[in-house]
Records
---
Amino acid sequence: MRLDIISIFPEYFAPLDVSLIGKARERGTLDVRLHQLREWAHDVHKTVDDTPYGGGPGMVMKPEVWGEAIDTVAEGGSPRLIVPTPSGRPFDQELAQELAQEPWLLFACGRYEGIDSRVMAEYSSRMRVDEVSIGDYVLAGGEVAVLVMVEAVGRLLPGVLGNAQSAVDDSFAPGSMQNLVEGPVYTKPPVWRGHEVPAVLLSGHHGKVARWRRDEAIRRTVRNRPELAAALDPETLDKHDRKLLEELAFRLQPEDVAN
Ligand code: JA5
């Protein structure tokens, strides 16, 4: 996969030199190209921003600079253009999997109050353009959001993860415990600072281990992600699950309790 990133702070992307993504780049699985947006600013001050039409606080990134940058980087092809913004569509595991199928992604990192909206309008007729949010909070620019997306997408590429099972076992991945977050995990030693590993995990009883893990996943989902718990498909719940949810004072819809 080819991955281009345009930013006024390409130094933000130093983490892409290490770990999983760094190794994938060394092997040629990932071809990451960083671009300094200011290279396409022509005035002596390398200006990339201007005041917003209609007034208001802050500055807006100039369309001419972005236009030249994207024309150059996308020359000869049609990458999928991803623009991080808190007003975008939510980034989730499903979108990560979709992006992992693409041969070429181009990330455009805004700063200040964002990029003049005509840039997204212009390229929408030439390539797939998505404005994407990684969560409901404000960042100073798109760079950190792009790091998040590149890691989420990069680890899904064939051969990037050591253990091929790891990618499908995750919370939120199809094939994992559907719509439940993962429970707690433990390793040696069996007692650490007085905290014991739950005995069931040392029992060697695979059936009891699986049941316990599912219980813990349900407890955590109810506690930390009540909206996911509320959306659980009753078809995926057995009697034990329903009894546990009842104990947790979690109210199922009446039709879920039939049979
Ligand atoms: C800020 C100019 O979803 C969280 C995000 C916050 C944020 C993003 S994504 N992009 C920008 C930005 O600020 O470009």
---
Amino acid sequence: MKRIVLGVSAGIAAYKAALLLRLFKEAGHHVDVIPTIASLQFVGAATWEALSGNPVHTSVFEAVDTVNHVRLGQEADLVVIAPATADVLARAAAGMANDLLTGTLLATGAPVVMAPAMHTEMWEHPATVANVATLRSRGVHIIEPAVGRLTGKDSGAGRLPDPEEIFAAVSRYLEDEATSRSSGPGPLAGKIVAISAGGTREPLDPVRYLGNRSSGRQGIALAKAALAAGATVRFIAAHMDLPAPEGVELSTASTARQLQGAVTEAARGADVLIMSAAVADFRPAEYVDAKIKKSDDHADPVITLVRNPDILAMLIAQRAAEGRSGDLPPLVVGFAAETGDAEAGVLEYGAAKLARKGCEMLVVNEVGENLTFGTDENTVTILFADGAQPVHASGSKDLVAATVIDAVAGALGDG
Ligand code: CTP
């Protein structure tokens, strides 16, 4: 299953996009439709919502709380615009972001396929020719319009190909992309990278647990960056807000102790372990089989906590114990969520944690109410146990992930 954003712009051929949407859905894909406002003159939002099963918006000012253009752009595996009018080609080429569709185009790192449709004169106009060339130079895949009957009496190049043809072209394109990704040499080709992600949950009774605010976004971004670098990725998912990325070898865990088992298994034989999961340091000492009720006791309940294993520290101790004959990864990357306080700053705490945990690299990030957890942005400093210069990265979690994976590739290359 892929997450596809289907952009629809204002051409008479917009109705063909409804059939294309059905083909995507029948193939099992999740589709979010983003029509331009003008295209609603041809096909209304109700059609898109009913056929896709998802809400439909045209402006960045709708569903503002979800920051739709960023979310849709970042979550997408593929953006398809059909029909793409001369106007949308021009706005995309200029990098404009004056509606949800063009905003999403700027926010996505996913491949983009456009199927232009317009009158022959507009298609052949030097402005459109230049815009198409610009888009192609940026990697946008443009499906050549068909030659045939256009709106009205005229005919020529500019007709939107039939939905089946667009569907076939998109499927071929996805296959080519996958092949070039898996066969591409990439800095981590032939390497196995184990990545833990998300937050653990420690059950208290059948309905309650102690959890944390980790969304898994950074771990997902790391997995995508490692895949893009050619690695085989073993992904150990605790609780996450989003599905695990495609193309990974997936295992799941709920509690810290389950995660410890899953991480150890995935780490064996791997070249790198990246521990981005937020692991609960403590769990309730006792799990109560039936829901704890108010009526059980009139006193305020007291929850006693006991320590969870420190997965990272134990794995590193285990690696040392096994010595040269062992198969635990030579490169272990920890994550440190730090807030800093009056006594020491975020980086000082990070340096102390790097020494304490004994890992080779530590990605230190500042956390707080509105920082890091559940957001798309992150600011980190990567510290190295061998004393190499720290590396800073600030921006989207994708950018941070690419920087961490670069550092990992560098460290493996040096080793
Ligand atoms: N970690 C782990 N097992 C735990 C707790 C943390 O493996 N029980 C890992 C995390 O995945 C992360 C790193 O250790 O890679 C640091 O986690 P963090 O919670 O920031 O640090 P703690 O060791 O828990 O230290 P403290 O809470 O004292 O800051």
---
Amino acid sequence: MIREIVQVGDPVLRKKCDPVTRFDESLSVLLEDMKETLKDAVGAGLAAPQIGVSLRVVVVDVEEGYFEFINPIFVWQKGEQYGSEGCLSVRGKSGSVLRPSKVKIIFQDRNGDKYSLVARDFFARAICHELDHLDGVLYTDKAENIRDEDA
Ligand code: CO
């Protein structure tokens, strides 16, 4: 089901999300809703608080594929990249954000199985942006030159 994307100003976007402890049917439903909502919005990633659910769940849709990360944690972050970002919860804006160029995360899948993953370039940027959402951080907190996209 396509869910409404919460917009900046809603307190759910500023909360530290809770870890997922139950890998059950309701988690699968959440993930399917996030996938549909992200595809519909044509974004690179979506975090659960963006549909009003304060849980540590993100989905990322990039060149490398479609990924579900549950309880993701950084193992390390390396290098620097400077580039443009937008957010489905901050409509019509973009801004330049400094991010690591390469990251390693550990995470769980929808069954609770543990994995690790190394990402670089835009994939790393998308992961950093989405993981920030889980701690109530928006890219606009870090961005320079926030501008209207159609300006
Ligand atoms: Co965002």
